[in-house]
Amino acid sequence: MKTPASEQKLCLYCGKPVKGRSDKKFCDDSCRNNYNNGLKAADENMIRNINNALRKNRRILADFLHDGMDKVKLPREKLQTAGFHFKYHTHTYQTQKGHIYFFCYDYGYLPLEGDWYLLVRDKG
C-alpha cells in the first residue's frame, strides 16, 4: 500500500523523501552514516582531545628525560611553558612512604615542595 504524499517520510539527515520500506528512516547509506556519525561526534571529539593531551604530556616528560636519564628535577614553570597540562594523567602510583606519582603512560612526576617536580621514567 502506497503512502499518500502528505504522509511521505523524510530522511532524518537530508530531508529528502524516503522510498522503500515503511520503517525506513534514511534515503541512503550515506545519510544514515552521516546521521549516526553526527550523534557520536561530541563524545568522539572529547575523547580525541583528552588522548591528544595525554600524548602531549608524555612527549613533554620524555623530552625532559634525555637519553640514559632516569629522573630529573624541574620547576613547574618549565613544564607549563612546554605546554604540560597537569589535570591529564593516565594513572597514579603511591609509594610505601605515601608519595603519589602521577603518570602519563610510562613517564611520571612527583610534586615536590616549592613548585618543583621530580620527573621519572617507569622502566617496568
Count of helices?
2
Q: Strand-residue fraction?
A: 15-25%
Approximate helicity band: 25-40%
Low-confidence stretches: none
Mean pLDDT: 91
Shape: rod-shaped
- The helix/strand class is alpha+beta
What Rg do the Cα atoms give?
26 Å
The structural domain count equals 1
- Give the spatial strand order of the biggest sheet: 1-5-4-3-2
Spell the H/E element sequence: HEHEEEE
Number of strands: 5
What is the terminal separation in angstroms? 68 Å
Largest sheet: 5 strands, antiparallel
Question: What attributes characterize this protein structure?
Answer:
5 strands; alpha+beta; 2 helices; five-stranded antiparallel sheet; rod-shaped; 124 residues
Describe what you observe in this structure.
- The protein is an alpha+beta fold.
- The chain is 34% helix and 20% strand.
- The protein contains two helices and five strands, in the order H-E-H-E-E-E-E.
- It has helices at residues 29-64, 76-81, and strands spanning 71-75, 91-94, 100-104, 107-111, 116-121.
- A five-stranded antiparallel beta sheet has the order 1-5-4-3-2.
- Strand 2 (91-94) and strand 3 form a beta hairpin.
